[in-house]
Amino acid sequence: MQSRRKLRFRLVVSFALFGFGLSALFAFAALDIRARVEDQLITTSLQDEVDHLNKQVVEHPDRPPVFNIVRAATWSDRTIYKAPLAWQSLATGVHDIYEPGPDGRQHHYKLAVQRKDGVIAFIQYDVSRDELGKQQLLISVVGAVFLFGLLSLGLGLWLSRKVLKPVTELARRLRDFRKNGKAEPLAPHFADDEVGELALALDEYANRLTAMVERDREFNSDVSHELRTPLAVIASTTELLQGSPDLTDKPRERLKRIERASRQATELIEALLLLSRAERRGPTRGETTEVARVAADVIESQRPQMRDKPLTIDLVEHDSVSVNAPASVLSVALTNLIGNAIKYTMEGSVRVEVGANKIEVIDTGPGIKPEDAERLFQRGVRGEGAGGSGAGLGLAIVRRLCELYGWDVSMRPRTDANGAIASIVFV
């Protein structure tokens, strides 16, 4: 999963980087301007000094000039004032030279040269001290950049907290709605700004969603009531008919099938109603549902699907397993799993095993592909290949029921023979 950064973190980092980058830009500009201005001032000053020195030597060749800051020298046919031989070949202008200083270390000098009227004038200026000042300025500027970066970070933290406080409050109120199960208007608690507009839009969406949910609940209740009434009539009528003394075996068997079908329809309606309400309901107080008993009832109700196929179906109970759920919910889930196993197994056996806090339906049908095992629980998806062991909406309903009660339902191909294994683990 790609990592996601919180909006507050992004705001803080952006503000800090902006402050740091802006400070660094100003620092670089200050250093560059300082270097340019310093170089221009030194060059201009040295050029003026060397012109003045040349003029003094021409006018008063016997009077040596005295300088306190720079080192001066001249050379001509008549007189030489401390001019090294290496300087005499330099052209007029300002040159950068590197020579040992009085302290024995290498120094950087600016050397101004002027050739005029047979006199060569030299002025040497030690810029090493200026470079030291430049280093000190650089250290100061770098420190200032980090200081402003920290200030930007602090300001970003404060601003992000201030700016995102309404958003955080909006999220908190939404979480409270989820806990309380009741939506209250959000817009009155926020100012008339972007967050207020978002709160108003959420209020409108919540109103539409609440109205839709209420309509669905009323529809489900009405449908449940209207369907249960005729199913109850069918159940009571078949019960009365089965009590008739002149009833033969064949009609009696058909009446039993009608009774089982009406009971399954009633259980399915109850399960679908629970799913539509996303409501988990347990059995009667002090009562648990025995998995093996429900599985036996489902097997008996599904035997007519076997018809004349050479197929056997067995129930094996290794351990007694009970669940805290209505029998109708477990019956709907097992009806789909066992019914699919019988439907897609042309010959062989279907074995239902109960134990180790789970139930498994093992068949000898064509099996399923491993890549289809999870897809079979999606709506409208069937297994590819030789029919598969899943069917349309049935397994999707089983998955939703199991999720509602915290059970783990899955399907996998058999490794020892052809067929599939459907299992429900009661977590």
Give a verbal description of the structure.
- The chain is α+β, with helices and mostly antiparallel strands.
- Helices cover 53% and strands 17% of the residues.
- It has seven helices and twelve strands.
- The chain has a five-stranded antiparallel β-sheet with strand order 2-1-5-4-3.
- A hairpin with a 4-residue loop joins β1 and β2.
- α4 crosses α7, α5 packs across α6 and α6 packs antiparallel against α7.
Helix content: 40-55%
Give the mean pLDDT: 77
Number of helices: 7
C-alpha Rg, in Å? 47 Å
The ordered H/E elements are HEEEEEHHHEHEEHEEHEE
Distance between the termini: 27 Å
What order do the strands of the largest sheet run in, or round the barrel if closed?
2-1-5-4-3
Please tally the β strands and state the result: 12
Largest sheet: 5 strands, antiparallel
Q: Ranges with pLDDT <50 over ≥5 residues?
A: 384-392
Which structural class do the helices and strands define? alpha+beta
Sum up the overall morphology in one term.
Answer: elongated
- Strand content is 15-25%
What topology emerges from the helices and strands here?
Blueprint: H1 7-59, E1 71-75, E2 80-81, E3 93-100, E4 106-116, E5 119-126, H2 128-180, H3 194-242, H4 249-277, E6 289-290, H5 291-302, E7 311-317, E8 322-323, H6 327-344, E9 348-355, E10 358-363, H7 392-405, E11 408-413, E12 420-425
Parallel strand pairs: 7-9
Antiparallel strand pairs: 1-2, 1-5, 3-4, 4-5, 6-8, 9-10, 10-12, 11-12
Helix pairs in contact: 1-2, 3-4, 4-6, 4-7, 5-6, 6-7
